[in-house]
Design brief:
transmembrane; transport; single chain; 16 helices; mainly alpha; MetI-like fold
């Protein structure tokens, strides 16, 4: 008897209606606290549209200059050239306004994700039980197909930026939690014990030792959150969220290769700029980088002091 025949001849496993339970939960939420979701939708649309209008109101040359200056500060002059030419290409493709709408959606979604993720990551790092509970939930959030999030989001919030933002937050939040927990757990235990030995309370140890020393790793999590947020732009466009996602969806529906390529290229340029800038910010925030900068500054001051003393000695010899 084959394994298939043995399985068919044995007792059948009763069907577990997991999907029906999930549908019941969504229906309960819609029928009992639907007003709350209407308020959430109104707030999200107001914030996203307000930020979009503010970014669009800034003349594009000013925004490009800001990108270039940030590139020079956080990266290199080579990236500053890309931060100049990339946005100029978006302007020339007449996609600047849509790019700013996408940037506004990314900023709001990333901010909400980090506001939720960082406290959860801190709690997971401080308590092993919280970590054990959170990890399987994060695995579920990251591995569930992205389109599945859209179904309850549309039912509860309708079309517009709100369901796209909710789906984006659920998908982008796990790296923020994981990197925050990882960064705090990687802090040197001897440093923590030294702080505790000097009488620092657990809150002071967390705020003045663990969080500052884990800032570099946490910024890597911020970078990942922003990248995952941007990757949801196209999917959010399917829900009528404003920005480049709508352009991509429109190009796909009309089989317009040129419009689709231009919209996709604009998303790529925006992603590269945001990725490099946030990565550069994370590198500068890392404790090792701060120590290296302070060491270089100290060496420069010592060199200037030696030169000043040498000049003073030579002037004294000449006067003598």
């Amino acid at each position: 008897m084959s394994l298939h025949e043995l399985a068919d001849s044995g007792p059948s496993i009763p069907q577990i209606p997991v999907g029906t339970w999930a549908e019941d939960v969504v229906d309960w939420l819609k029928n009992n606290i639907g007003v709350l979701f209407d308020d959430v939708k109104s707030i999200v649309e107001t914030v996203v549209s307000g930020l979009s209008d503010a970014l669009i109101a800034v003349p594009w040359p000013v925004m490009i200059i800001i990108f270039v200056l940030l590139g020079l500060w956080l990266r290199t002059w080579k990236f500053a050239i890309f931060a100049l030419l990339g946005p100029l290409l978006i302007v020339s493709m007449q996609l600047w306004d849509d790019a700013m709408k996408t940037l506004a959606l990314v900023i709001v979604a990333a901010a909400v994700s980090l506001i939720l993720a960082i406290p959860i990551g801190i709690a997971a790092a401080q308590n092993a039980w919280v970590s054990r509970i959170v990890k399987p939930i994060l695995d579920l959030m990251q591995t569930m197909p992205q389109f599945v999030y859209l179904i309850p989001a549309v039912i509860l919030l309708g079309l517009g930026p709100a369901p796209g933002l909710v789906a984006t937050v659920v998908f982008a939040m796990p790296p923020g939690v994981r990197f925050t927990e990882l960064g705090i757990r990687q802090v040197n235990h001897e440093v923590v014990e030294a702080g505790e030995a000097f009488g620092a309370s657990p809150w002071k140890v967390l705020l003045r030792i663990k969080l500052p020393l884990s800032l570099g790793t946490m910024m890597a999590g911020v970078n990942q959150v922003i990248m995952l947020t941007l990757s949801m732009v196209v999917i959010a466009g399917m829900l009528s969220a404003p920005g480049l996602g709508q352009d991509v969806v429109g190009a796909v529906s009309q089989t317009d290769v040129a419009a689709g390529f231009q919209s996709g290229l604009a998303v790529v340029i925006l992603a590269i700029v945001l990725d490099r800038l946030t990565a550069g910010l994370g590198e500068r925030a890392a404790p090792e980088a701060r120590l290296a900068r302070r060491s270089r500054a100290l060496k420069r001051r010592q060199a200037r002091a030696r030169n000043t003393n040498s000049d003073a000695e030579q002037a004294a010899k000449v006067n003598a």
